[in-house]
Design brief:
By secondary structure, this protein is α/β, with parallel strands linked by helices. Helices cover 49% and strands 14% of the residues. Keywords: Hydrolase.
Amino acid sequence: MIRTFLFDMGNVLAFFSHDKMCEQMGLLCGRSRLEIQALLIESGKQWEYERGNLTPTEFHHWFERAVGKSVDFESLEIAGSDIFELNHSIIPVLDSLKAQEYRLVLLSNTCVSHFDYIWKQFDVLQRFDDYVTSYAAGAIKPEPAIFDYALEKIQCAPEEAFYTDDIPEYVKEARKLGIQAEVFIDTSTLVEQLVRRGIQV
């Protein structure tokens, strides 16, 4: 019997675009999207941020040094975070699960800035009972440490938890731990996956 549901955030609760992020950040400093992509994504600096190795202030200072220009902190926060679009179709699913008294836990690779932005912009994270973020865990999926942290938060046996994520590699890692897990394709497919487990939403 499932007692807890683990949801990924990016491309499950809210769709996002790293291309848009890099383009918007580039506009602040006269750099191209590809240049920012190389500095931020290809270098792994974004994953350091999501791992919690940098605070927002430290990330801001790093960015200014990397591009050789002074950049307004708030403008950088907005440029780097205004990249999300709420998956409206997931809201009724969350509400139905909550009404049936299931526990909802977020399990996401994310940075402080993105989490805070989604919290303020969309009424979705407020529906959750607890949060497993990479920056709090000090590890990113699919590393075992973040899943170990998640197992502490679900308040049930692994086999009593269900996890949905759009990245197959992360789903595979969860299954190794005994968690019921499925790749998120779209909301209607998720509903079908739940119905097959006897859960109506």
